[in-house]
Amino acid sequence: MDRLGPVRIARFSTGDDPAYGVVTGDLDEFGQPAEDSGLVELTGDPLYAGIQVTQTEHRLADVKLLAPVIPRSKVVAIGRNYAAHASELDHDLPEEPLMFLKPNTSVIGPGDQIFYPSQAGRVDYEGELAIVVGRICRDVPAEQATDVIFGYTIANDVTARDLQKKDVQFTRAKGFDSFCPLGPWIETDLDPQAFADGVSIQTHLNGDLVQDGSTKDMIFDIPTLIATITSVMTLLPGDVILTGTPEGVGPMKPGDEVEVSIAGLGALTNTVVKR
């Protein structure tokens, strides 16, 4: 895979077919790109073609950012990976990573609408760090886990909480179309657990801070998650792993705006509408 070094990779549209580009410019203190930020277009999907730039450039303000990846096969999510979150829902702590799947049809991008389904009585936000898998892998030892990571992005593991309790299984509650916002881009140079304090994960609902956590509080670290998942199933390039949510989850309603921000990754914003 050709590399330019650490880059932020976005998937975007100018009104034509989706394309990929490297984001230029810095993020401000709120995780937003500078006004003069741009995109240098790539030759194709960097997961398969490598990171090969073209001569075509765009102003970031002139394009629509899309979900930075559409998982080739699946989104693998981890439940109850923060002790305080498990406690707030009155759940026991898992003895090993608790895995469930979200369909790739649940994925939407930054600025897209989260649809509040008619079957649900309560729909919650869950801000999370997401891993984008870079290559086909199976039975990955924990000490080699970083070798299969392409990069990181932001996720909102939207959940129909009442249906989750009703069904016991998570498929319906987690699997509705639009229930997996991802974005705004993939950061290829981030080690969320390299620092003692981890990286900050925050969620704002209509401007109010509702989640304020850190990756240092994960029960199972990222190498453990990858080792455990790949002992069960093969991961493909572009598959996404959701690593769990900190405490502070709560309900959204149509008309609400939810923003998930992660230090070094930017911010992912979506609005909720009635389906």
How would you explain this protein's 3D organization?
With 275 residues, the protein is mainly beta. It folds into 2 domains: 8-66, SH3 type barrels (Roll); 75-274, Fumarylacetoacetate hydrolase, domain 2 (Alpha-Beta Complex), CATH 3.90.850. Helix content is 11%, strand content 38%. It contains 5 helices and 20 strands. It has helices spanning 46-49, 83-88, 161-167, 171-175, 222-230; strands at 8-13, 19-24, 38-42, 53-59, 64-66, 75-79, 98-102, 107-108, 113-116, 123-125, 127-133, 149-156, 159-160, 180-187, 200-205, 208-214, 240-242, 250-252, 257-262, 266-274. The strands form 3 sheets. Strands 1, 2, 3, 4, 5, 6, 7, 8, 11, 12, 14 and 17 form a 12-stranded mixed beta sheet that branches. Strands 9-20-19-15-16 form a 5-stranded mixed beta sheet, with no helix packed on it. A hairpin with a 3-residue loop joins β19 and β20 (266-274).
Rg is: 18 Å
Number of domains: 2
Helical fraction equals 10-25%
Shape: globular
Q: Name the average pLDDT.
A: 94
The CA-CA distance between the termini, in Å, is 41 Å
Strand content: 35-45%
Task: Give a short overview.
By secondary structure, this protein is mainly beta. The protein is 11% helix and 38% strand.
Secondary structure topology:
Layout: E1 8-13, E2 19-24, E3 38-42, H1 46-49, E4 53-59, E5 64-66, E6 75-79, H2 83-88, E7 98-102, E8 107-108, E9 113-116, E10 123-125, E11 127-133, E12 149-156, E13 159-160, H3 161-167, H4 171-175, E14 180-187, E15 200-205, E16 208-214, H5 222-230, E17 240-242, E18 250-252, E19 257-262, E20 266-274
